[in-house]
Design goal:
about 700 residues; alpha/beta; Rossmann fold; Immunoglobulin-like; 8-stranded mixed beta sheet; about 20% helix
């Protein structure tokens, strides 16, 4: 029960104050005139003013409400290091026991784990959400049990009571880790760049010497170990070996006594890209498809095209002086001898041997392919003639032999059974318009002597043949009429996509390899894809998790030549995929999750937030602190104890309001006082007379 005096004025407060001021003037005037009843007059006027203010007695029946203490428990991955888990559970039990002994006090427990997509520990967000669920007037304090490694420091909860941080971990903890400072997302293939990294000991490490062995590997290559300085920035020169994803792995051996070895290994994924694609287009006699090749290659700003074309064959005799045919001589020696290895791709488009390029130059092209270069031959009728490229040293690496027959009839190119499984032509049939692809009208009859036939033409003869020669690659297109697709004749066909894939296969792009094991990661879900040209099932894939756990996963057939399976990664880190001779390293999230980047317990980042609420950071290593009640505004933390602030909140269940006096009583009181004042003043006046 609680009683208080309230006012319910009969008129506005402005008028009441004005009347009170007038009454005060009248009382002052009576006092100045020496009237003996001035004080009675003052009481009468005060009674009138109070009557207008209408004072009332308010009685409230209140129900006391309990105080609430919010306990947020950090259950993130870093809390599993050392004996932090045991410290945490012991602290939770101690807080529950202490709060249970406090009268009229309740405990709310909220647990927070790892954030999604490696967001880390979002303990302050969890505290803010817990505060939003409770009445602020009842919150007597908040307690956070954590190792101090929270990752949402920008979230500042609006606390009406002290925040206490109970810190897990040991002061003697230490850890060795690898830190990469400036890993780029992309790098140019074959060009050296530098990574800055550091191997460091944090916490309270013992003296283990100034050097450490660092092991480095790229993808599945053999690892190489170097001795590097400890706790010093290092610059590592790196050259990416291939396009697409390159996974660089760094690791140091675990050391006895460090709190975890999860951050002793680190992986960085860098995509290899080509700076410029240098293409040498060697054209023979002019034809309609020559312009298509040139336009296709020139349309890409990343392609540097050198076009070697024969405008005037040697047998053409028209009497024009040689020195008037061109301003400069074409640098054939520079292209085919000195700089041939600088080209990524050489295309022979309907070229015939006319004595312009010596045989030694063609020998250079053959050597260029054997050492890793690529050649594409777009054949026309000349391919079966006496001066065909097949009559040159290039025949040693060509996968087909011409029969000297030229088929002049309409036909629709088709994907072979092998082509449906090969990544260069897989799925191209789905892009065909209604009624199928447009027709071509000329094909060179060739016999396959090596390689793989991906497309066939008239009479099921080889049309597109690919082959690997030592370290290089060769492709032959036995027709000069692919340009009909580009111009949309009879609906056209996927000329651009076919040539793009063909060029990427010849440039050894990983996604166009015939035998590949790849994986795409979305969050913690992994889609594993196996490409193969073999008809037999490749069998299950072996998955090795970051903690060494091995899982065998069956790979069902998804499309001809492609097997796919989904896998839910149980943890973040590096996964190794093995299937036969193929191996792949995949990073699910970062190789070192955010929880294991900073592993040493520290309350430095949370201390300002706790101190702003009169709370503080208390280590659990010496023992669990006592919980006391302190007055609001007082320091709520000390040696061996933490404090909460009782809020004394209540709920009003009933309110009774009764006027101090009824209106007629106020009027009677004022009149009585005025009459007494007149009587006193009148008697004194009569005696004086």
């Amino acid at each position: 029960m609680n009683a208080s005096l309230v006012f319910a004025p009969l008129v506005g407060w402005g008028l009441i104050w004005a009347l009170a001021g007038a009454a005060l003037v009248l009382v002052a005037f009576a006092l100045w005139r020496g009237l003996s009843g001035w004080w009675l007059r003052a009481l009468a006027l005060a009674a009138l003013v109070l009557a207008l203010a209408n004072p009332a007695l308010q009685e409230e029946e209140r129900q006391n409400l309990s105080d609430i203490v919010i306990l947020v428990v950090d259950d993130s991955a870093s809390q599993s290091l050392g004996d932090r888990k045991a410290q945490t559970e012991a602290a939770v039990a101690a807080v529950q026991a202490e709060i249970a002994l406090m009268p009229n006090t309740e405990l709310r427990i909220h647990r927070v784990g790892d954030g999604e997509e490696d967001a880390g520990t979002l303990a302050l967000s969890a505290l803010s959400e817990a505060l939003a669920e409770e009445p602020r007037a009842r919150v007597a304090g908040a307690i956070l049990i954590t190792d101090g490694r929270v990752h949402d420091l920008g979230v500042v909860p609006n606390l009406p009571a002290p925040l206490q941080v109970l810190l897990t971990g040991r002061e003697a903890d230490w850890d060795r880790r690898i830190v990469v400072k400036n890993a780029p997302a992309f790098a140019i293939i074959g060009e050296e760049f530098r990574l800055e990294l550091k191997v460091e000991d944090i916490g309270a490490p013992p003296d283990l010497g100034p050097e450490v062995d660092l092991t480095i590997s790229i993808d599945t290559e053999e690892p190489v170990t170097y001795t590097v300085a400890l706790n010093q920035d290092l610059e590592l020169p790196v050259t990416l070996p291939h396009g697409g994803a390159n996974v660089l792995q760094f690791s140091v051996a675990p050391v006895q006594g460090e709190i975890t070895d999860r951050n002793n290994a680190l992986a960085v994924q860098i995509n290899g890209v080509r700076d410029r694609l240098r293409v040498l287009l060697v054209s023979g006699e002019p034809h309609a498809g020559e312009r298509v090749w040139r336009n296709l290659l020139k349309s890409d700003a990343a392609v540097d095209l050198v076009h070697f074309t024969i405008l005037r064959p040697p047998e053409k005799q028209d009497g024009v002086p040689v020195d008037e045919l061109s301003l400069i001589a074409f640098p054939t020696r520079e292209l085919f001898v000195e700089k041939i290895k600088e080209f990524d791709l050489i295309i022979f488009d309907r070229y015939r041997m006319r004595g312009i390029l010596p045989m030694s130059y063609i020998d250079n092209v053959v050597n260029y392919v054997r050492e890793g270069g690529t050649v594409l031959v777009a054949a026309g009728p000349e391919f079966g003639a006496v001066d065909s490229l097949y009559r040159s040293p290039l025949a040693d690496i060509l996968p087909v032999a011409p029969t000297a027959q030229v088929i002049e009839e309409g036909f629709r190119p088709k994907i072979t059974e092998l082509g449906r499984r090969h990544p260069v032509t897989e799925g191209l049939e789905k892009e065909a318009p209604e009624g199928g692809w447009g027709r071509w009208f000329r094909q060179i009859e060739v016999e396959q002597i090596a390689g793989q036939v991906l497309m066939s033409g008239a009479h099921d003869l080889p049309l597109l043949v690919l082959n690997r020669v030592d370290q290089g690659r060769v492709a032959v297109l036995a027709s000069d009429q692919s340009w009909l697709w580009g111009r949309g004749y009879e609906g056209g066909g996927p000329q651009l996509e076919l040539l793009r894939r063909l060029a990427h296969w010849m440039l050894k792009e990983p996604e166009l390899e015939e035998e590949t094991l790849t994986a795409e990661v979305a969050g913690e879900a992994m889609t594993i894809t196996r490409r193969t040209l073999a008809e037999a099932d490749p069998g299950p894939v072996t998955i090795t998790a970051p903690d060494g756990t091995v899982t065998e996963l069956a790979m069902p057939l998804a499309a001809p030549g492609r097997y796919e399976a989904g896998f839910k990664a149980p943890m973040l880190g590096l996964y190794r995929l093995d299937q036969g001779e193929l191996t792949r390293v995949i990073a699910v999230g970062p190789a070192t999750p955010r929880e294991f980047v900073e592993t040493i317990a520290s309350g430095a980042e949370l201390a300002p937030l706790a101190e702003a609420t009169r709370g503080g950071v208390t280590r659990l290593e010496p023992g669990n602190p006592d919980i006391r009640t302190v007055a609001e505004g007082r320091v709520a933390v000390g040696r061996g104890w933490i404090g909460i602030t009782p809020r004394e909140a209540y709920l009003t269940t009933e309110v009774n309001v009764a006027p101090v006096l009824p209106a007629w009583a106020w009027l009677l009181l004022a009149a009585g006082l005025a009459v007494v004042a007149w009587l006193i003043e009148g008697r004194k006046g009569a005696k004086a007379g």
